[in-house]
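Cross-check.
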Amino acid sequence: YEFGNPHPEKIQPESYYLDQALLERPGNKEVQLDLLYDYQSNVALYPEFQKWIRESRVPVLAIWGNKDIIFVPAGAEAFRRDVEESRLEIRFVDAGHFAIETNEELYAEAIGGFLGKFVASA
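Predicted model, tokenized:
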């Protein structure tokens, strides 16, 4: 939660306590291990994802922690190959993987603006 976050003291402890409580549910360990194992198939599916994104012309909002070591910033930039600029919004926040934990207002404003721009015109 804290890696890459310039203000770890602002992270509400409820975030990680709730996540941990949910991870501790009976049977969830196996589910998480299955999910982790299945990640290896993701890269092979990227061409299908990218084709769908191109052909559907779906608008994309990517808000990314610029210090995320799990989903690195290049992952957000990769959308530029498949999404026309008028339907793409990429924002980087000074944060790690859990960027929303200390940037709630930024996320809310960005999502609201994005939905207003694309849902209202749909």
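Strands lie at 60-65, 88-93. The longest strand covers residues 60-65. Passed to J.P. for a second look.
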